[in-house]
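Hi team,

As requested, here is the filled-out complex form for the 3-methyl-2-oxobutanoic acid run. I kept the field names the same as last time so the parser does not choke. Let me know if anything looks off before we queue the next batch.

— J.
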Amino acid sequence: MSVTNFPGGSNPTPPGTPITIVPTSKVTMPALGEMKRQGKPICALTAYDYSTSRLADEAGVDLILVGDSLAMVVLGHENTLAVTVDEMLHHTRAVRRAVRRALLVADMPFGSYHGTVAEGVANAVRFVKEAGAEAVKIEGPRVELVRAMSEAEIPVVGHLGLTPQSIRSADAALELKADAHALAQAGAGALVLEGVPREVAAAITAELPIPTIGIGAGPDCDGQILVFHDMVGLTFAPAAKFVRRYADAGALIRTAIEQYRDDVEHRAFPSDEESYHLPEAARRALEATVKTGTLRKV
Ligand code: KIV
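And here is what came back:
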């Protein structure tokens, strides 16, 4: 296992690494609101573990979401329903250890906010107290729950949409807009719009006092979010229309593993340079045992 440290530690940036200027100030929910007012796009990304969330944070991503998509892209479930509060807490803690600048948002999994409002708030408190989340995200127009969480001083990100085919009429669009306004009034600090026609997302973004963060909702939202594994090509099914692949990490990793397996099979790994060696005197003493059968102390 290799051990890495945060900047300032013993890990200098490798030569040739492109330098990007990343703002250093901590991102908070009010800061996202300020970005909306200034017309500055918000960059959000999902992450589920220490290494990828550290890379995302150091690359200047503003909001890191430990999404319940974890169930599918990390744990291999068919859908997101199976992931538990304990699993989400476990991954949120790992991300917490890495993230310094971005706003850390934890997705509340299915079942954790579908009972009473009090149960929902109690589960949200766990994400803040036990895992260090700075906000929680919940799906649907759960206005009373968002209000209760805000009153309990838990920052909340709302999440609407999910079924673009269902928003094909003006009435459906108006209903979505009404839900978005209700969540904002109840205290949501930001709103994820998923799979929403561009025109509807643009209208909601223009009207809402809080930032919208789109995924499959067109370019007019205040920010964008993608699932990390989709963005870097680490998924095994065809990507949705809205996904842009910025890397083919799947191909890169597959080739690396095949090369490693080949090297092991041909005894080409490890080399002598990749091996530890005894000091000269100890080596000679050890060699002598081969001849004499006894080890001389050095
Ligand atoms: O779980 C998730 O990754 C999400 C994104 C689709 C926003 O909720």
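Two things worth flagging: The pocket of 3-methyl-2-oxobutanoic acid is lined by residues 46, 65, 67-69, 107, 192, 194, 215, 225, 227 (CB under 6 Å). The first helix runs from residue 29 to 38.

Thanks,
J.
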